Amino acid sequence: MKKLLALGVGLVALLLALTLVAFGIMHTRYLTPSAQWLTEHLWPEKLTFSELDYEYPLHFRLHNVTLETSANPLSFQQVDIWLSPQLFHQDKWVIDSVLLDGANFSDGLPDNDFLAQLQLNQLALHNIDFANHGLIARGVNLQVKKPIWNNAKQWLPYGELQLSAEQFYWQGEALNNVLIDADYKAQDSTVYGASFQWRGGEFSGQAEQYPAGWSLVNVTISKLDLKDDLSTLSAPWWQLAKPYLHHINSLDVLSSNWQLGETKLTNLALSLENLTIDQSLWQQDSGYLSLNAESADWHGLQWIEPTFKLEFRPGNITISDFATELLQGSIQLSGDIQPSGIHLHQLTARGIKWFAEQQQDWAWLDSDLPALKNLTIDQWDLNNLQLIQLTHKPFWQLSGLNVEGRNTELNRNGRWGLWNGKLSISANSASIGSLVSSQGVVEMSSKEAHWQLERAFLPLENGYVDATANWAFDAASAPWNINLHGDGVPLTQLGQWLPLPLKVDALAEIDLAADGLAGDYPMLAHSLSGELNLNLRDGTLVMKNSDALVVQPFSLDGLRLNADRGRLSLHETPLSGPTLNARLHGDIDLVEPKQGMLELEVTQRCDTQHFDLLRNQQREEKGSDKACVLAP
């Protein structure tokens, strides 16, 4: 028994001695060659290093490390290993922490086989460069607590991680100064904080992963200049991320310049809340958007300091606090937008000056408004507007224009008109061609498409026009009537609307009373009835005959045009003037208007000119030589 006890004590003493020897070597210059000899025998041609340092109690540092793998060898400038007191567990080496420092993987990232064979409490990478499937990374630093790899191809392990990089570059786009603090899992991951720079813009924020996708939380984008259209943005980073984004909890854009469709926004400030990215605007549950910008260019119009707020509900978008400076004036509005149309509660515009000198000045009207299906405005006031149209003749302008509308329905199912409500229109000056009116007033109302022109009074340079009218334009037969009186009405512009074989200028006194049905042309052709009385003074006819251009002063009294159920008759009415022998007569049946006739006959000396006013034709009838001799 004493011998066995002595043998046991001897073995323990020997183990203690060997341990003391090994511990002693760790603090001498023999540590590196001893460790190299040991690794060469344990893992021949697998692991090499130039130097090994030891720090009490379990920290080892290897310099210039090369690890042979089934693919390319892995080389690091330095590897730090903190061993665990429990060195081996469940067939894996247990290591508390590993720091891999200084590596360049230009041929792709290595498989994680060698790390998967270890049980790590913490993995850290420092100063790593790599290129992998077109992605180039510089200055990557990574720290992961309890890293987990599900397969050998998973290059970023699951775990609580902090990642930084000088740059990620892919397909011509770069993310710079990347920082990420996240809990990365197979599902339900969380990004506690992230920031990077892209195209000069600065991005920061948080994110949460749900089964439907990622939700962005407290994201801020600042100083981002986008020359591409955001609605069709093809940047590879965006195309890569877009399928995984599902929801915006909160996102702010500051001091940025963006292009969105036909709109260019300068110095944009934008806030988004509770928006689902993969749903249309009409499907949002309770989203919010606010926007203001230094300027917005849209279809050639520059909006100065636009600002508005949008609230999203299923099938409805509420717009509030909309205000902007536009065309030297200002606009404010609020209302609701739905897929079926627009309902504005309030619209105010002041001092706007619109000049149409080129066809492109109409672009904003041509491209968007025709698609509107329904439009109602509860209250609108337009004050001191100026509209000038110089793109095609006849030119026209409205200056000092004021419009007051109450409870107006202006578009129903794509048809424009005053369906309901009241409108009052006035203008300091209005003109079309050479026809000028000052201080004109128009008042109208409508109830369920029964439109009434209650007053139209247009003072002219030498007279006025006064009219009232009714039109049930949505009824099947669309009955209408009009009463109009005018005095001193110039006919200078008559040739702009009616092509005539001669030029007519005069001041007209007009009395018109007419009614009919406007459901379609056959209804009008069988229903038009009424009477037109016309007197012309200070008139001039400019006629061209075979010999010369003739300028003939004239006047006309007592012209009466009768209409009876679409049949128009003009009794022969003479024109009077020096050396003038002329008469005007005609008959037209609107059922067959091409068979009608409206003719002016002018006889001078022995020749007669026949002017067909319906067909814009002229023929000359010469008298006999004897008649010419006898003519005065």
Automatic annotation (TrEMBL):
Any one Gene Ontology BP term: regulation of protein targeting to membrane
Ranges for domain AsmA: 1-571
GO cellular component, one term: plasma membrane
Tree of life domain: Bacteria
Regions that span the bilayer: none
Protein name stated in the entry: AsmA family protein
